[in-house]
Amino acid sequence: MDTIRAFAQQVFNSQPFSQWIGAELTTSGPDSIELTLAIADHHKQQHGFVHGGVISYLADNAITFAGGLALNGNALTAEFKINYIRPGVGTHLIARAQARHAGKRQAVCQCEVFAVDGGEEKLCALAQGTIVAAG
Predict the structure, then answer these.
(1) Are 37 and 91 in contact (CB under 8 A)?
(2) Which run of H or of E encompasses 19?
(3) In this structure, are residues 70 and 8 in contact, taking their beta carbons and an 8 Å threshold?
(4) Does the CA dihedral 99-114-26-129 come out positive or negative?
(5) Which of 71, 55, 56 lies closest to 7, judged by CA?
(6) Which H or E run contains 40?
(7) Longest alpha-carbon distance in the chain
(8) Is residue 73 classed as helix, strand or coil in its secondary structure?
(9) Cα(91)–Cα(117) distance, rounded to whole angstroms?
(10) What sign results for the dihedral spanned by CA atoms 42, 47, 48, 53?
(11) What is the radius of gyration, based on Cα positions, of the chain?
(12) Of the candidates 120, 100, 124, which has an alpha carbon nearest to the alpha carbon of residue 112?
């Protein structure tokens, strides 16, 4: 399990956008991942909610990580869909993704994105995607 965590952290640390936006890899497993992001003003849109693109980034990166771990290597998103449930409001976001099925070349993954406000997690988005082995 430590080698999975080390691999996931190495890949995460090599993502300039993830570092720039302020995301963190909090947990990882053989086919799952959790990413967090402390909400800052520059993540918000004009109504004070987290911008949908920020939520989408977390979901996309989380499902790609989950799929890549399930496929035992580097991976890319072939497609994904996101449903926004409620506005992202609070102190931080948590994206939890898991591979639901993994074959030799692709994995189907799902992600739940939660906004944490006052210590309470509220579901703000659901995403599903197909992840393919890179290369």
Answers:
(1) no
(2) helix 16-21
(3) no
(4) positive
(5) 71
(6) none
(7) 44
(8) coil
(9) 6
(10) negative
(11) 14
(12) 124
Per run of 10 residues, the mean pLDDT along the chain (length 135 residues) is 87 96 96 97 97 98 96 93 98 98 96 97 98 90
- The closest of 84, 94, 102 to 119, measured between CA atoms, is 94
Rounded to the nearest 10 degrees, how much is the dihedral formed by the CA atoms of 67, 101, 122, 53?
40
Q: Are strands 92-102 and 32-38 parallel, antiparallel or unpaired?
A: antiparallel
Structure tokens at 39: 């909400």
Residue 118: left (phi > 0), alpha (psi -120 to 50), or beta? left
Location of structure tokens 């898991």: 98
Residue carrying structure tokens 């990580």? 65
Q: Which residues contact 78 (CB under 8 A, 6 or more apart)?
A: 106, 129, 130, 131, 132
Residue 51 structure tokens: 């911008």
d(CA 63, CA 76): 10
Tokens encoding 106: 């692709």
Can you give the length of the chain in residues? 135
Measure the CA–CA gap between 11 and 7, rounded to whole angstroms.
6
